């Protein structure tokens, strides 16, 4: 197998598909003839992405509301998809993100900051921490549990988790997001082994840095539109010298979904302009 023809007509569910990366993936997958179901907690976003995929590519796409943290909501869409559309061939776990509530104000704590501990690790709101951890980790585990059962019964399917650079080395300020994405990589390996003889492959993609809604508040100064110091640091640590474009992920996703990668399971591919390869000097 050395082309992507096996992908035509397959059905892929994309969670968080109303977002920047999910919607770009939906368009890219449609280019290879893959039909998509866009799931998002924001129904309008899911519908809009599906409508634009259909209009621009002519390939079927459906937008449905689903909360990746609510089993009932996932069961409901599973029944709808199986009853009204078809069996699911692929699942992309794309829902995720960070939040200011789970972000420390300080990057690191020095002896000069002892009067200001609330801006450090000690000021993190547990509730915010839990929300971000759950969205990224439980929000990957739960849809997988609900939507991959039939894949295993049919002995075929591919699961693709969207991880992050934080899975390898945590960035400062965002411990919940980092811990959750590290867990996503660990879980990818665990499930890949668990499903290896059941005909279902499980892999991940770790995008480098893309300017999207979840990180704009950290990387771009709202008033001036200039890069923040953190944004500049990221660019300086990305050997290719730019943020990624969401479409940069498409090729890797198509490869991991297709039979071209049929002997590959349990890996995470960075799509990062060299960020994870760079030692900083
Ligand atoms: P985004 O905010 O544009 O998209 C995320 C989508 O998830 C949104 O449409 C949101 O409504 C949806 N969502 C949130 N909570 C949900 C829930 N409970 N149930 C269902 N849907 C929910 O962000 P993005 O940048 O497109 O991120 C997509 C994935 O890529 C995330 O997992 C993110 O962590 C990962 N990622 C992004 C970057 C980046 O630089 N943008 C880098 C690495 C990894």
Folded structure, characterized:
It is globular and about 60 Å long. The chain has a single domain (5-277), classed as Rossmann fold (3-Layer(aba) Sandwich). The longest helix has 22 residues, at 126-147. The relative contact order is 0.14. It contains nine helices and seven strands; from the N terminus they run E-H-E-H-E-H-E-H-H-E-H-E-H-H-H-E. It has a seven-stranded parallel sheet, sandwiched between helices. The protein starts with 10 loop residues before the first strand and ends in a 10-residue tail after the last strand. It has helices at 20-30, 43-57, 71-85, 126-147, 149-154, 175-195, 216-219, 229-236, 250-257, and strands at residues 11-15, 35-40, 61-65, 90-93, 157-162, 200-207, 268-271. The chain is of the alpha/beta class and 281 residues long.
């Amino acid at each position: 197998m050395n082309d992507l023809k096996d992908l035509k007509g397959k059905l892929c569910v994309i969670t968080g598909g109303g977002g920047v990366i999910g919607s770009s993936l939906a368009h890219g997958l449609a280019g290879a003839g893959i039909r998509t179901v866009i799931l998002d907690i924001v129904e309008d976003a899911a519908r809009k992405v599906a409508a634009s995929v259909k209009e621009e590519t002519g390939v079927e796409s459906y937008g449905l509301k689903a909360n990746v943290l609510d089993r009932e909501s996932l069961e409901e869409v599973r029944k709808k998809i199986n009853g009204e559309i078809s069996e699911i061939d692929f699942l992309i776990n794309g829902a995720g993100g960070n939040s200011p509530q789970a972000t420390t104000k300080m990057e690191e704590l020095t002896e000069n900051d002892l009067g200001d501990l609330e801006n450090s690790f000690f000021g993190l709101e547990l509730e915010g921490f839990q929300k971000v951890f759950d969205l990224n980790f439980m929000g990957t585990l739960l849809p997988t549990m609900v939507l991959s059962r039939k894949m295993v019964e049919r002995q075929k399917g591919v699961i693709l988790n969207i991880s992050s650079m934080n899975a390898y080395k945590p960035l400062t300020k965002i411990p919940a997001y980092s811990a959750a994405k590290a867990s996503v990589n660990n879980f990818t390996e665990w499930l890949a082994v668990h499903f290896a003889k059941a005909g279902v492959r499980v892999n991940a993609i770790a995008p480098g840095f893309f300017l999207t809604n979840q990180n704009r508040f950290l990387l771009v100064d709202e008033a001036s539109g200039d890069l923040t110091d953190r944004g500049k640091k990221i660019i300086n640590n990305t050997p290719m010298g730019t943020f990624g474009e969401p479409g940069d992920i498409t090729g890797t996703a198509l490869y991991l979904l297709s039979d071209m990668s049929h002997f590959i399971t349990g890996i995470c591919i960075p799509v990062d302009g060299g960020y994870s390869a760079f030692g900083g000097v």
